Amino acid sequence: MKRAAGAARTLASKAQRKAEKKVSKNLELSRASRAEEQNAFCAGKLLPFQFEETCHIAQQLVISFHECSGTPLFAGLRLSKDIPRSLWEAPIACMVVRARSKEPVMEPLTELVGSSECIYANLLACEAFGADNFTELIGSTSMLPSSLSSLSSSTMFESRYTKKLCHGSHQLTLRAATRWQMGGSTDKANLRTAYAFTHWELADGTLCGPAGLKLRPPLTADAKAILEAAASAAAAELRRLKQEEGRGNTDALVLAGVTEMRRLRDELQADLLLRSARESI
Fold this sequence. Notes:
The chain has about 280 residues and is of the alpha+beta class. About 45% of the residues lie in helices and about 20% in strands. It has helices spanning about 1-40, 50-70, 85-90, 125-130, 220-245, 250-280, and strands at about 95-100, 115-120, 140, 155-165, 170-180, 190-195, 200, 205-210, 215.
């Protein structure tokens, strides 16, 4: 009886050791697989909506925005069956930053001055920052604050946020951006801040946005005054040619004067429309 019991314990012990070895091997394989996936992501072979870590961040960004605002981040999310991909291709630039870690996800390809680390950026955010690839942003240091400590602890949500930033020599200014804290304010170990913006302004004043929108800066006050004075002078010269010199509408000088006056007035009208378009954004 004792011999049988001992044999049973031996078999059980062997089975346990075998199971433990199998679990350990599976764990090693899982770690190797995750490391391989991480390397592929860092090399740009996996896009953010294909990488588990950034997929999770994208999901949390969308959920946290809805919790803070009560509305979806953008209309297309309502029917989306793939949130990470929809956010990657969204008509709104999105980024997530956290306090910079000692060992960032990737070595930054472009040196930025900042105390935070970008851990997520979608396609439009890459365009706004002039990045050729998302790997230039994700894992790099950022000038965007990772903490909203300046805001009320009960809010942790701000719209109409404006900030001048740079990515290497590329400069931009966020216009009417929204930023909010992802996760509870007491969860310091997982404190992340999300940013979303639709329009940004380049160093030369060009206003940019989704679908390749680019609106050049309007005329300066001085340039506009010079153009208005030139248009008035052209109109006065036409009147003089007709009234004082008696030239007709088909006269070469009159035709040239009409062309120049129309050109100047068209430039003023274009500037007026440009100002209206920029102000409506």
